[in-house]
Amino acid sequence: MGNDEDIAMLLTDRKFQSKLKAWTSYNERQKENIYKAYNLSSKEFNKLFYLWNTLDFHVPERPSSEIESQLNHTLFKILAKDKKRRLFDTRFYKYFARIAAILIFPIIFYAGYLQLKTSNFNSSDQFVSVSSQLGTITELVLPDGSIAHLNAGSTISYPKTFSGRNRSVSISGEVYFEVVKNEAKPMLIDAGDLVVKVYGTSFNVNSFSDQNYTEVALVDGNISLLLKEGKIEGKDEYKIIPGQTATYNNQRKNLKVETGQIAYQTAWKDGVILFRNTHFQDVVSRLSRRFNVNIILKDQSLANISMDATFHNESLDEILRLLAISTPFHFYYAPVKQLPNGSFQKAKLFIEKK
Predict the structure, then answer these.
(1) CA distance linking residue 43 with residue 352, whole number of Å
(2) Are 265 and 206 in contact (CB under 8 A)?
(3) Cα dist from 238 to 174, 227, 268, whole Å
């Protein structure tokens, strides 16, 4: 695949569009034949598939004969004003009309494609961006009525209206979704390397930028996982079922799927802090976001100690004291300093091994 013009021409080609629409129904041999027919790699095709699902451009259903007739009429009308051109070969008009009919819609598409490509995703007149501050949990309603619960330190961005072929959403952090069912217009959630395709269901996505994985836990319904580049476990879409948790390692590029209780992944939205075989380093990260405190693990020998615990309304100090009963550590706060503008530094807490 060469340049942006090639992309525009392919995505407005009716035959190629039919391949995109039926893509998930093809077997591997059929897909390989399509790659060869269009001289595309699987990586390039997946990019086109994702772009086609995101954009809402299409070729109008007007017959080419009608377009050709109108263009011919316009050209003859213009040229009739100049009698010196009466001998102009009318075959040129038809040829020009056919070329225009072929090119006009890719040109229109290309203009729209470039506009989307260069647009600012956070533009206030088109998109909404909401962040849940550290120490808080935020709930909001999306334009289609779907509900998103944002864990502390998380951000979600989405258009003011879902007017395209899909309901496109981008997140950073951890979000629990309750998506309104609409099989004709799936929701596509951009979570870093991973894209979650949803028709209507409840699930949790954990994709903080400071961790090397993206985790998706499905409560009910069904969802598909896609990669922006390449296949996931040899598939274009990897489906998971209720009760499963899928963890994609962004560095190793592999997927791990587990079946069982998913309360651990979803308890936070109800204010519950739940640790199940959780490394102390992850415990520290979650508590830091939850209580908006900069917690520093001074002794890294504690980092990989596993912990199991459930907390409901306990304070940070109470949680740490209870954890310290079974783990040899103690903690202390650094003195809080006042800044020149009158505000105070974020609280800083140190954890050391006893």
Answers:
(1) 47
(2) yes
(3) 21, 9, 26
Q: Which residues pair with 123 in a beta bridge?
A: none
> Hey, is 298 helix, strand or coil?
coil
Contacts 24+ apart (CB under 8 A), 110-114: 110/4, 110/5, 110/8, 112/55, 112/57, 113/4, 113/7, 113/8, 113/11, 113/51, 113/55, 113/57, 114/4
The Cα–Cα gap between 267 and 262 comes to 9
Cα distances (Å, whole numbers) of residue 2 to 94, 115, 191, 218: 30, 19, 27, 39
* Average pLDDT over every residue of 230-236: 90
Helix axes 42-54, 28-37, angle to 10 degrees: 90
* Residue 163: DSSP 8-state: -
**Confidence band of 257 (pLDDT split at 50, 70, 90):** very high
Half-sphere exposure in the Cβ direction for 200 (13 Å, CA): 8
The CATH number of the structural domain formed by 272-353 is 3.55.50.30
Name which of 107-116, 199-208, 216-225, 289-298 the model is least confident about. Answer: 107-116
The verdict on pTM exceeding 0.70 is no
Domain boundaries, the chain: 4-54, 64-118, 127-264, 272-353
DSSP 347: P
**Fold assignment, 127-264:** Jelly Rolls (2.60.120)
Nearest Cα to Cα of residue 109 among 8, 3, 2? 8
Both tokens assigned to 30: 């059929």
Residue 192, number of CB atoms within 10 A of its CB = 18
Sign, Cα dihedral of 239, 245, 250, 253? negative
CA Rg, the chain, in Å? 27
Question: Mean per-residue pLDDT for 323-336?
Answer: 93
User: Which residue in 304, 325, 322, 300 sits closest to 313, CA to CA?
Assistant: 322
Distance, CA of 205 to CA of 266 (rounded, Å): 9
Q: Kindly give, in sequence order, each residue whose CB lies less than 8 Å from that of residue 25, ignoring residues fewer than 6 positions away.
A: none
